[in-house]
Amino acid sequence: GLLTRLQTSAPTIRTLSTSRCHSQSIPSSLWKLGRLNHVAIAVPDLEKAQALYKDVLGARVSEAVALPEHGVYTVFVELGNTKLELLHPLGEKSPISSFLQKNKTGGMHHICIEVDDIKAAVTELKEKKIRVLSEEPKIGAHGKPVIFLHPKDCHGVLVELEQA
């Protein structure tokens, strides 16, 4: 009768859980991710690429610099908030040579993100099963330590970490 109708028509009141937010229970890292330093683009013709960014688009473009340890020539294109790094093979064993064999016209090769403590970052990322492509950081194009993370562990993107 009346009691049944009152029970079924009464509004349902929900209470919010007072449990702690998950992010509060995650320990903070010993290192911090910083800003995007550059996006690297592999190019089959370095002079043509330099001319595009300098003469056509009006950007400030550096001279080519050889980095034998990495097997590349690099050119930096200055943008307001970041840089583009144009990469061209240096030598037959260059990782850029194999990239360009698969991508004849070139394309995005990697992104570079700054970190405030590269050694702590590498240690923690290894613990989290993120593979690094070298045992120790190497000196990169900016004269600072860099290390690359395996693209299969980073959703298909080759990620370079650079000491800020």
Automatic annotation (TrEMBL):
GO terms for cellular component: mitochondrion. Residues 35-164 form the VOC domain. InterPro entries: Glyas_Bleomycin-R_OHBP_Dase, MeMalonyl-CoA_epimerase, MMCE/EMCE_epimerase, VOC_core. The keyword Metal-binding applies. It catalyses: (R)-methylmalonyl-CoA = (S)-methylmalonyl-CoA. Coiled coil: none annotated. Its EC number is 5.1.99.1. One of its GO terms (molecular function) is metal ion binding. One of its GO terms (biological process) is L-methylmalonyl-CoA metabolic process. It comes from the Eukaryota. Pfam families: Glyoxalase_4. Signal peptide: none annotated. The keyword Isomerase applies. Keywords: Cobalt, Isomerase, Metal-binding. Methylmalonyl-CoA epimerase involved in propionyl-CoA metabolism. Belongs to the methylmalonyl-CoA epimerase family. NCBIfam families: metmalonyl_epim (TIGR03081). This is Methylmalonyl-CoA epimerase, mitochondrial. It comes from Crypturellus undulatus.
